[in-house]
Write a structure and sequence with these properties.
With 261 residues, the chain is of the alpha/beta class. The chain has helices spanning 19-29, 53-69, 89-97, 122-125, 129-145, 158-161, 166-181, 205-211, 232-244, and strands spanning 3-7, 33-39, 75-82, 104-106, 110-111, 120-121, 148-151, 186-189, 218-221, 251-252. The protein is 38% helix and 16% strand.
Length: 261
């Protein structure tokens, strides 16, 4: 494991990582490439902490300087973990044309549209079957846009829903079909290991057992908010769990990033 996907900096407001510490431990563990995927800034965000555009500019500047300093040892990529909105296409076109952001990762934290007047958070509010329909509709639009390089924690909806009913199984199968259709890897989230208490909390055994029946690509992503979840031992623990869930043939160590620049 020489590449680490999905890393957050303390500028997001709910991480303790600093760029300097991440680099220090990355060099120690022998990583060659790091993929910082900071949360995209949202003016109307009410739940998840998000960095400001100014904070992201500062982080990008420091990453560019670090790439010059460690050019023979390490390279750091920079993109956003983002939701999608059919009501605000201009916002995503801005990402594509802004040299600050090189790529996008689909991290769907909301039911329906994140630009709705009162967005509902997946991890706290998703309890009704009809809300899975809203979640699916937004997922379809994101996949069709072909803006995103992989789908972070696609099983996150089960963490609050906590039911393996017909609707949950239907949504799982639809996400897998979309992954195959648009060749978008699914992220097996190592940060979620903190939450594994039953079959629903992500990484969800129920979700990934279904993925294992297919040829969908699976990427072990760190989603590192602190140094312990960045360490090789932690990522190997996640990889071992993925194999335990039947995903050995699905796992990929490297994916094609859809760069804008």
């Amino acid at each position: 494991m020489k590449l680490v996907y999905h890393i957050h900096d303390q500028c997001c407001g709910h991480a303790t990582n600093t760029l300097d510490n991440v680099i220090k431990f990355a060099l120690k563990d022998g990583y060659k490439e790091l993929f910082f995927t900071e949360h995209c800034p949202l003016a109307n965000n009410k739940y998840l902490w998000r960095p400001s555009h100014k904070q992201l500019q500062n982080l990008r500047k420091r990453i560019d300087l670090a790439n010059l300093k460690y050019k023979d040892k390490l390279f750091i990529h920079f993109g956003y973990e983002s939701e999608y909105s059919k009501w605000n296409i201009k916002y995503f076109n801005k990402f594509v044309n802004d040299p600050l952001c090189d790529f996008l990762v689909f991290g769907n934290h909301y039911i329906g549209d994140v630009w709705a007047p009162n967005p509902k958070l997946v991890m706290t509010d998703l309890t009704k079957p009809e809300e899975l329909d809203e979640y699916y509709e937004n997922t379809v639009l994101a996949m069709k846009s072909k803006l995103f390089s992989w789908y972070a924690h696609p099983d996150i909806f089960l963490a609050k829903y906590q039911k393996w009913d017909d609707k949950a199984q239907w949504l799982t199968k639809q996400i897998i079909k979309l992954s195959l259709k648009y060749n978008m890897p699914l992220g097996f989230n190592a940060n979620g290991l903190h939450l594994v208490r039953n079959n629903f909390n992500y990484p969800s055994k129920l979700f990934w057992n279904e993925v294992a029946k297919t040829k969908a690509k699976v990427l072990v992503e760190a989603d590192a908010h602190d140094i312990p979840t960045l360490r090789r031992t932690w990522l190997l623990k996640a990889k071992e769990l993925a194999i335990k869930y039947g995903l050995k043939k699905n796992l990929v160590d490297k994916i094609t990033i859809r760069y804008f620049h």
